[in-house]
Amino acid sequence: MEPVIPESLLRRPELARQPVPLARRAEQARPVTPSWLIEPKDDRLVAGTMLAHTKQYRVEGCIGEGGMGWVYKAWDPVLERAVALKVMKPDVPESERERFRYEAVWGARFCHPSIARVYDLVGVPGQGISWFVMEFLPGRDLGTLMRRAKQRGTHMPLRMIADVFRQILSALQYSHDCRVVHRDVKPENMFVTRDPNTRFVTSKLLDFGVALDLSTAGTKVERHLVGDPRYIAPEQTEHGREVDHRADIYAAGMSLYEALTNRHPFEQLLGGPFHALLHAQRSQGFAPPSNYLPDELPATVVHGLDVVIAKATSKDPDDRFEDAKSMRDTMLEVLKS
């Protein structure tokens, strides 16, 4: 069958806005074959042309649910690949809807192997439904893997932890180079999966829904605390404090501590009053990870990890690693021994 494109898609925008006589509407409704399909010399679309198509996905089942929506595994029959559909619940507040949209926008803009890719964002007018299409990631988030290790009374393999944080810190360095601060770095937003083609284990940084664009930061006023209280930097716990990429380094350090030791730095405060945890992030110290690391680790590695964690989680941003790359390189140098 010869492909056709409606004439309405080929009209210039300024002509499309003019009223169309009734006598011509029936004629324009008929599909036509554009000239560039007939005449090889005229193969360019007119500038301003809007092309449209309908994309279909076959839903295979729900694979996850959060406060904002559901995640489904689906099949793309055109490109012959598995995808994930994240569908927002219709009763999500307006403020959270914006977070949902930004999660899709940043996922689509970024191009890094350790940041989950978003392919499309769809809104259904009048129905309050939005959803986006992203790469399908078989596997588990780091938070789930940590809980399983703790339940078994074992530690996650040090080699695996190093590989996960090597990739996550590389992803953070990329986003920071793009002048974007994640602001919600935590184990649940670090996903461990396998490349569908090579089967190599790889890690992905998820959920840029509350990310801060430093190029436009002065135009946005935060009304609420942003980030997970278990991992946020001291400067994120107070309104009006300046926040930059070093807040992500603090959160990465807190997450690394928990992955290494099977316990949160402020384990005793989890589940308690909210304000107590925020106060601890601002001014309370915690035991070094060496207190809880496996006995078989070499002393040089144990001491080195103490230094990495202490520097990453310093209360003063000026005392932390200057960037994610520095933290990554120092961590890998320690573990080499």
From TrEMBL:
Q: Which SMART domains match?
A: S_TKc
> Which Gene Ontology terms cover its molecular function?
ATP binding; protein serine/threonine kinase activity
**Superkingdom classification of source:** Bacteria
In terms of InterPro entries, this protein maps to:
Kinase-like_dom_sf (IPR011009), Prot_kinase_dom (IPR000719), Ser/Thr_kinase_AS (IPR008271)
Tell me where in this chain the Protein kinase domain is found: 57-332
Which keywords, in A-to-Z order, does the entry hold? ATP-binding, Kinase, Nucleotide-binding, Transferase
Q: What is the protein's name according to its record? A: Putative serine/threonine-protein kinase
